Amino acid sequence: MANSQYLPIIAIRGRVVFPHTSVTFDVGRSISLAALKMASKTACLFVCAQRDSAKDEIDESDIYPVGTVVAIRQISKLPGGNARLQCMGLYRAVARDISFNEGTFTAIADELVCRQGDPGLVEAYMRTVRACEERITDGGEGVFTPSVTVALKKITDADEYVDVCANAMKIPFEGKQKILECPVVTERLAMLNSFMENEIEIMGYERKIKARVRESVDKNQKEYYLREQLKAIHAELGDDGEETDELEEKILSSDMPEEVKNKALKELSRMSRMQTSSPDYNVIRIYLDWLLDLPWTNATADTAKLSDAVKILNKDHYGLEKIKKRITEYIAVLQRTGGVNAPILCFVGPPGVGKTSVASSIARALGRKFVRMSLGGVRDEAEIRGHRKTYVGAMPGRIIAGMKKAGTVNPVFLFDEVDKISADMRGDPADALLEVLDPAQNNTFQDRYLEVPYDLSRVLFITTANTLETIPAPLRDRMEIIELGGYTHEEKAEIAKRYLIPKKLQANGLTKSELSISEGALNTIIECYTMEAGVRNLERKIDALCRRAAVELADGKIKKFSVTEKNLEDILGAKRYDKDEKLRRDEVGAACGLAWTAYGGATLIIEVSKMQGKGEVLLTGKLGDVMKESARAAISYIRSNCEDYGIDVSAFETTDIHVHVPEGATPKDGPSAGITMACAILSAFTGKPVKSSVAMTGEITLRGKVLPIGGLKEKALAAYRTGIRNVIIPEDNERDLDEIPQTVRENINFIPVSDVDTVFRNAIVGM
Ligand code: ADP
Known about the structure:
By secondary structure, the chain is of the alpha/beta class. It folds into 6 domains: 108 residues, Archaeosine Trna-guanine Transglycosylase, Chain: A, domain 4 (Roll); 93 residues, Methane Monooxygenase Hydroxylase, Chain G, domain 1, CATH 1.20.58.1480; 54 residues; 167 residues, P-loop containing nucleotide triphosphate hydrolases (Rossmann fold, 3-Layer(aba) Sandwich); 84 residues, Orthogonal Bundle (Helicase, Ruva Protein, domain 3), CATH 1.10.8.60; 174 residues, Ribosomal Protein S5, domain 2. Helix content is 44%, strand content 19%. It is built from 26 helices and 24 strands. The strands form 6 sheets. It has a 7-stranded mixed sheet with strand order 18-19-17-16-20-23-24. The chain has a 5-stranded mixed beta barrel with strand order 1-3-4-5-6. A 5-stranded parallel sheet has the order 8-9-12-7-13, with helices on both faces. It starts with a strand and ends with a helix. Adenosine-5'-diphosphate (ADP) binds next to helix 12, helix 17 and helix 19.
């Protein structure tokens, strides 16, 4: 006979109370306390779950009508008027006639009549759920407490088993309510089984997650352990790893880009595993020092005001007006663009004309650091790009070395003597240089030693060369050529007085009042002790004078040392040059030409003699092919026009001609000696002397035309230096006269010509 009794209802929140289980819960709401009060009479309560556990004020629709009738075991009072209730679930019941009495809900609780279902099915389910239970217990995730496990083992009744098991498991509250409401035991078993399977699956995931976490924890722990061991080993070996710690700190706080930092840390970790005495340890140590010493972001700010920059430029150099003007433009643009895509300037000119010092002056004017790298004789690409770290004694290339020296990422970087690089089988340094100078590539310059890209894009590159001819064409195309010619005697004297003498006085620790150099002495040094387009030797001679003065002043007997023409030879030795070579008097078969060399202009005497023979031509003096052809053209022209010059045609058949250019050791080439050779040859055949006061330059054609030549400025300077005051030049070169310094133009009579006849008339006596 099913139970049916009138009971107060307690609406329990967030959980479901099952029969066969002992539960403890707290109550505090007034309706619950009123229910408790009423229950003191019945000793039983009807516990139903509340649908929405968040709700405080409820009416009867908020209560699930199926609940459990419980017997109260104990009520204890809690602070704040709450009560703790311990009770035992007795049976399932359905609420009938719910009403509100004495401040609480009450109902008639009719016991839910349950059916067992097919006993075979019950048994089958029982086996399955027990197997599940075992797996869950074995999983060790604490779903069933040990007391529950023990209790479950003892239970034989399926009904009780489901209740105890469902109560213990983490099943959603609605799921539990469904199990409670179900009147058929086999169905409850089926529900329980599916919740258990679900639990097992979740446990599988949990295990996987935990394993993964453990794996990473284990790895960290292992590394930590190994590291500690390593530290202990290092400490035992008397090396406490301080160095690596220090390096790590330096790397982390450095301004290296992330990629470089990672690379450095990787190398450091390799290093920390090595013995300090191992050679590899040192290799990495040096490598890391390089990475740490290189500038990565440190830059100088450019001089803000153009006028300040120009002031410095003017102060550093005398003359060079055109060049200063171009550089002023260059700096003005730079100050706007910060040097991005700045053209690469190439200063071309003879040695000592100030190419290097103009470049360093640009750096000073901009307030940037200056690094100089001479490319003279660089044959190996590795000198520019470095050697791989695996080579013994490997080092970065000179570019990276230069950057380290500069200490900033935006220095002025000078490549001196780009015309002197040469390629051999170890790669072409010009290729590497091209990459460095190419703005599209140089932001990721690859040095083989460094292994990480280095950004050269903020560097300002400048190059110098003595001649354009030997610069590889692709390199030449990339640069803006600025030519610096030689200086006149007067310019040299002025540079000496204003710059070189003060500079050398200071370098030798002398004051202005301690050394005087007379005007005459200075002129003699320029004319007789140096023969150059620039002022490099002049500077050396002045240095020699200063050193001598330091010796003379040493014992304090004299307060001032004077250099005059009289004691000059005593200090500098015998005069080296009697100015440039020139014809001392009008001579037959000799003419003075003008040549251009990488070291500036020079005079060139051409000698011709004729002797009895069979009409052969002999050319000596280490002449190049072009010069030889030029000589033959001159002979052919004179021969074909011999009658005009009063020469017998047969003379050419019975005479051998010997053309010689002295200073046979120096190779000479180029067409510009054509008219000079023609003069010397004609003079030899006619017996009429060539005027010693005339020098000339120009190419000759078979028809007797005079073609233009290059290097007029240097050639004119050479003539001027030598004291020649008449210079025959091709008519087409007249336009180049602007480039020639004023003093030279004023003192030399330039004779422009377009044909050889005019040359002869001006150069040969009596023509
Ligand atoms: P380059 O690089 O052309 O061979 P440098 O720049 O080394 O020549 O110059 C040699 C010396 O001459 C340096 O001391 C330089 O300061 C000085 N010099 C050259 N030209 C001038 C000039 N116009 N004004 C002042 N000094 C000069």
